[in-house]
C-alpha cells in the first residue's frame, strides 16, 4: 500500500493520543473567539479542563445558526493580520456563514486534500481538470490547491461550458477530474449523444462530491464515462473538500481523524447512536487556527462502517451521505429522503440522467410527484410502452418508500439543469396557500 502521509496508518491508540493533544489545544484557541468565550462560560466548561478526547461530550454543540448569528467576526479566534482568506456561503437568505483561514490553515487543507487524491490513485504525473466553481465556494480552490500540492498539472476549468470541458479533456490528455455528480451525469449524456466511445476519453479517475448521490449514480458515471469515480465528503465549515474520501476499495470514506473528531448522534436526542447505525455527523476541528469549531452539527446523515478497511489505513470510514436531517420529506406520515428516490430511478435502464421531485398539496393532503426524464430511444408515441415504464417505476418507488408517488415521464433534457449543485426538490406547497 502506498501512502501520502504516515498519519494514514497510525494505530488507534496513536490516533486517540493525537486527538487528545490537539483537542486540548483547540478548545483553548476557540475560547479566544467572542462566541466560544461566551458559550463555554455559559455551559460552565473551563477550557483547561479539556485534556482528553473522552471529554468531547462535555463541550457544547455548534449550529449553522450560531455561525450566522456570529457574522461577521464572532467566531474568529485569531487576529485579522494573520488571516489570508475567507470563504462564505451565498447568503441569499439572512447572513451568510463565513470561514476564515490563516496561511497555515491553507497549507494543512492542501495537505489533507492531496492525501485524499493520492488515496484515490492520483499521482504527480496525472493531468487534473477541476470542473467545480471557483470563488467563495470551497470546492474549486480547495481541490485546486490539493492537486498542485500533489504535483499534478492542474487545469482550473471551472464549472459549465461542456463543449470547452470536453475539448480540454481531449487536447491535454486529462487523466483525472473533479466534477459534481449531477453534472457528471449530464456530461455522460452529452458523451453518449455525440456518439463518443468513453474508452477513447483519457480520464481514468473522477472525484465526485459536493452533493449527496446514490451508488446507482456512481455506477452510471463510471459506466458512461469509462472511469472510476471516487466519493468524497467535505463541508465549508470543516474547510471544504478533504474531510473524508474513498480509497481504491470504494467501501466507505476514510475520515482523517488526526484533523477532525467525528461523532454520530441521534439528531433528536443528541445521544451517540449504536455502532453502525445512521445518525447525524457532528464534527470538531483539530488543526484549524483562524476559526476552530467545536461539535459542529453538520445535519448530514451517515454511519461509521464497522471493521477495518482492506487498504490498511486505520482512520475510520463513514458511509456515503444518506441525506440531510433537514431534507427529510414527510408524505402521508412516511419519512422519505430524496436519495431513496434517486437510487430507484437510476437503476431503471430507460431512465435518463435527470429527475425532479415535486411536492404539492391537494386539499389538506401533501402529495409527491416525481418527474422523470426518459432516454430518447424509449420516449416513443406508443402510450402502452410509456405506460408500462410509468407503472414499473411507480411500483419500484412504492416498494422503497411505502407510498405511491405520481410519476410523470418527460423527454430527456427537458428538466432544468445547473452547473452547480442540482436542485432536485421543488416545493409548491407554500405557493398553493
From TrEMBL:
Q: Which family does it belong to?
A: Belongs to the phenylacetyl-CoA ligase family.
Kindly list the organism's lineage: Bacteria, Pseudomonadati, Thermodesulfobacteriota, Desulfovibrionia, Desulfovibrionales
Q: Which UniProt keywords apply?
A: Ligase, Nucleotide-binding
Q: Name one GO molecular function term.
A: nucleotide binding
> A GO BP term, please?
phenylacetate catabolic process
Q: What is this protein called?
A: Phenylacetate-coenzyme A ligase
Associated pathway: Aromatic compound metabolism; phenylacetate degradation
Q: Which organism is it from?
A: Oceanidesulfovibrio indonesiensis
Pfam families given in the database record: AMP-binding, AMP-binding_C_2
Subunit and interaction comment: Monomer.
